[in-house]
Amino acid sequence: MIRTEALTRLRLLVGSMRPPLVASARDRELPPLQPGQAIQARVEQQSAGGHLVAVNGRVFEFKLPEGTHPGDFLRLVYVNSEPRPTFALLRIERAIDQQDARLSDAGKLLASLRAVEQDAPGSPRMQSSAPVMPAEFPDAPRAALLLRDALSLSGLFYESHQAQWVMGSRTIAQLEQEPQGRLPPLPAPTEKPAYSPALIPVADAADAAQAVAEGAELLPAPADSMTAGAQEPVATPARMPAHPDSFPLIRQQLAALETGHVAWRGEVWPGQTMDWEVGEAPDPEHPEAARVWRTELRVRLPRLGEVLARIELGRPGVRMQIIADSEEHNAALRANADALAAAFAAAGLPVAGLEVQTREA
Fold first, then answer.
1. ∠ at Cα 23 (17, 27), nearest 5°?
2. Does the pLDDT value for residue 188 go beyond 80?
3. 87 burial class (0-12, 13-18, 19+ CB within 10 angstroms)?
4. How far apart are CA 333 and CA 335, in angstroms?
5. 260 Cβ contact list (under 8 Å, min separation 6)
6. Which residue pairs, CB below 8 angstroms and at least 24 apart, start in 106-115?
7. Segment 193-243, tens digit of pLDDT
């Protein structure tokens, strides 16, 4: 049962806006809704009495503002069912057609990404500005955790980490360790949009009504703003779909989604640069099995020269291919191959194959 004061506020909300949408006399069967519930409806087609609108699995006939077309979406708040189902119309989101096509915020963002300079052909690489490890090399378990964090906190997985924060499994302090978490907020808009679709949230219609009573504005004041067609909002900094400084990271996210690979470049310890790629692919020997993880490391070491290591983790275990830059360095790597395989096995990763080769000149 809705509280009396909440119902009063809801009626105030309806009175402060355009005339409410009242279903035709024939439409009395109502889906389970609570007064004040915010919902989205879709205009299906025109009818003799106005427009047929799909609301939570039911179709109602409403008289909608001129210029409303099939395919448009309506943001509504359910008011009551007596004498007929009644809804408050918050705004109309226009369907895109060939005569009046506009880019969505996501489309504008993708278009903006084209202007981001690419640092090299192929997959864009994440760049680390600080060494992953201290000057004194840590033990293997600690080194593995630091390398994991280098990828995990790179910003590539920021949105999934935000979801973890919502669920309570990640803290704000952890989010602020990532590049997006350290970005300054976008500037406030300098101009009022020509068309403002709901300047306050309507998750709680009663609170929205109270905001209206205190002078907040839910819909634009001009009476012809809905009938003449929704106008494009004036572009202001606050309407950017993402912070411009995050565009390089977004491009890297898109590249990772497209290729299934993540590329990273940085210092693993002071003065020691490493190129690192991680990805997954089907197992050619076991196509019916799960996909395998592949990683590739390229590093130039003082005693071993340039070393390229390709590691594949699949159902049979770990397969490694190590490529040296000279026969001398090849011999040194071979001499320690058994110790390397034993270290993998001790970590629970049995080595199914280990090959050391020399790079062709």
1. 160
2. no
3. buried
4. 5
5. 279, 280, 281
6. 106/241, 108/241, 109/241, 109/242, 109/250, 112/244, 112/247, 113/247, 113/250, 113/251, 113/254, 115/247
7. 443 333 333 344 444 444 444 443 333 333 343 334 444 443 444 456 678
Locate the domains of the chain by residue range: 1-101+196-234, 105-185+240-248, 282-358
Exposure string (b/e) for 65-80, b if CB count within 10 Å is 16 or more? Answer: beebbeebebbbbbbb
Interval 314-328: pLDDT, tens: 878 899 999 999 999
Sign of CA dihedral 213, 214, 217, 223: positive
C-alpha to C-alpha distance for 168 and 162, rounded to whole angstroms: 10
CA 7 to chain CA mean position, Å:
37
